[in-house]
Amino acid sequence: MTKANPPLFPLHGWLGAWAVLLAWFPAALLGVYLKQTFMSKHYLVISRFLGLKGEALPFLDRLSFFRADLLLLFVIMPLIFVWVLRRMPLLYARWLVWVALGFTFFCYVNLLALGNVGQFISWGMFQDAIAWGIKDPQIIAQYVEPDGLVKLGVIASLILLPFQIARSARLVRLARLQAYGAMGGVGGAVVLVGLSFFQTVPAMPHHQASTLRALATLVGWGEEGDDRFKGFSQEEMVAFYQTFAQAPEYHRKARYWGKEAESDLVMFVFETGPARSLDIDGSLEGFPTLRRLRQQAFTAPQHYATYPYTSFALYSLLSSHYPSTGSHLRNLIRDHGQKLDLGMMHELKERGYLTKLYTTGYSQFENDKQMFSGLGLSETFSFSSKDSKPPSDFFIQKRDALLASLPPAARKIEGALLDDVTIFYQMVEDIRHYKKEGRRFATLITPKVGHGPWADIQGFKEDYPARGRALMRLHDRMLADLVAMLAQSGGLDNTVIVVVSDHGVRTKSEDPDFVPGKLSDYSFHVPLLIFAPNTLQANHSIPWLTSHIDLSPTILDLMGIASGRESEQGSPLWDERLQQRITFFLAANYLGAEGFYQRGEFTMRQVISGSQYQNRGEMVFPSSSMMLPEQAAEIEQVRKRLETRTMLQKRWVSFGLE
Fold first, then answer.
1. Contact (CB, 8 A) for 277 and 469
2. What is the pLDDT of residues 338-360, one digit of tens each?
3. Residue 203 backbone class (left: φ over 0; alpha: ψ -120 to 50; beta: rest)
4. Which long-range contacts (CB under 8 A, 24 or more apart) does 626-630 make?
5. Cα distance between residue 578 and residue 582, in whole Å
6. N or C: which end of the chain has fewer CB within 10 A?
7. What letter would DSSP give residue 509?
């Protein structure tokens, strides 16, 4: 006689459903912790905003910010789950475990995003994280800490344990206690929700459920459409933008027009290079090559990136357009990238220049190839030591020579340095041949050794800007060989050399002192130098604020190129009318904030919280710079201005592609 298998889920009916429900509660608690993580950055601001003494919010006021989360996670969803469990065989109740595990992972990923960039994760950011992890598994360790994975495993175990108890015939009493515990949890949540209404704080965006806001960010709900500008012609969009942003109209043959018409172009982009690490108008100690080039160069000590993300920053540098935010630009490039046909590289290619990209083989997002091709880069030299061997021993020798002059700690960047050395000296060798053959060229190089988090190769420890400066000095030494080759061959006097950074520091992993969730000089303020030997005999420092969108107009003016300029959003650096322009800074889908500069004042709106700040002179927003209720009209004007910019830009970058 065979022994019968014990029955699954010995508790039946409503009691059995409530016993299984307890598996949801660990995930729900993590959802509440997600809200606490978000709110921990805002309590002080809210206290000061309300003028409370001691800058501390009372318990019930704090509790009110959790009302929607408690109601959703501990009342509404549990009741729905119990209702569904009661109407289906408990044999299939494992679906609740999968829902709880999936929600746990969702919260964990958003906790990582909040901790590093101050923003819930978007679908584009999630795709990038997966792509980076596949291409460079070591980078995962820089963001995913072991203790976090341990905690994730503990929560998963706490989800599985109640489910196993509920289905065990030997643990009926414990399962019954689980059922009563789940009922008590829902009842306790109802009490807390009731208490939360005894608040003194006014309704704020912070009262919204964080899990719903995180979900909306992931799937792109609530992104503004572009219906307001649907049907606008290019001329109408340009006219609107010039009025809206108080941007200068394009003037053909303005100052310095065509001074470099017979020159070639080399564009060098520092990866993660804030002005805090390299003051382009400072002493340039340790940067002899930049100091030499600066003697005949435009420098922009108040230069700012448009977006703290490499692909979007490069898009602005090459196109003179702000990127549209969210997944909009990504999707357009994926579907229509080959039809971009704009910007300085495209115009130079149309005039017979060989346009070439030198890259380390890593892409910021999967559609970079389409973007660079559409922006006029007709050839690409790509190298990554993870995928292939360098073309010759020459590149290894160059890398070893650099490493030999550095402390042993520099060995940690050996692979990245080999990548940079390989693409850089391949470019130098190619330029030597182009000059010898009389071939016109425009090259763009994007090395990666400076990508954050910065390795400490000089023993700077907690001085993170100095870490970045040490890595940028390595590239200055490499640039010295390019300048020397051009000088020896007689080609330096007809070569424009651009040195710029894509963006600055964006996460606490790159610098623990970084303040996430806000715009800052650390993220946007970057160095810019344009060596123009036929134009200048001394340094020309631009005293006003400039943007990545101004680089392409500057180069095209120097080259004397008038075509393809109709849709530029930037202006040449030297255009004094830039002092009146409203210049935008975009990071809604990266840092959770966006803003603009106008006549000496920086304004920021936190998309994730709805709070707005203003500060004169610096892109720094302490709590004291938060806009107050009596500024309601101005607050609404800021919101509408940023919303209008978003709508306009989506239509702008879509024009001619869709």
1. yes
2. 778 889 999 999 999 999 999 98
3. beta
4. 626/45, 626/48, 626/49, 628/49
5. 8
6. N
7. T
pLDDT tens profile 130-168: 776 777 676 666 667 778 788 889 999 999 998 888 887
Query: How do residues 290-339 score in pLDDT, each as one tens digit?
Result: 999 999 999 999 999 999 989 999 999 999 999 987 667 777 777 776 77
**What type of residue sits at position 294?**
R
CA dihedral 341→344→347→348, nearest 10 degrees, is -130
What is the enclosing helix (H) or strand (E) of 530? strand 528-531
Question: Of 204, 191, 157, which Cα lies nearest the Cα of 74?
Answer: 191
Cα 513 to chain centroid, rounded: 17
CA 138 to chain centre: 20
**The residue count for the chain:** 658
DSSP string, 584-621: EEEETTTTSEEEEEETTEEEEEETTT--EEEEESSS--
DSSP conformation class of 457: S
SS3 per-residue string spanning 327-375: CHHHHHHHHHHHHCCCCHHHHHHHCCCEEEEEECCCCCCCCHHHHHHHC
SS3 of the chain: helix, strand, coil, percent, to 5: 55, 10, 35
State the pTM of this model.
0.78
- Reference 356, options 417, 262, 476, 267; nearest CA is 267
CA atoms of 210 and 212, how far apart (whole Å) = 5
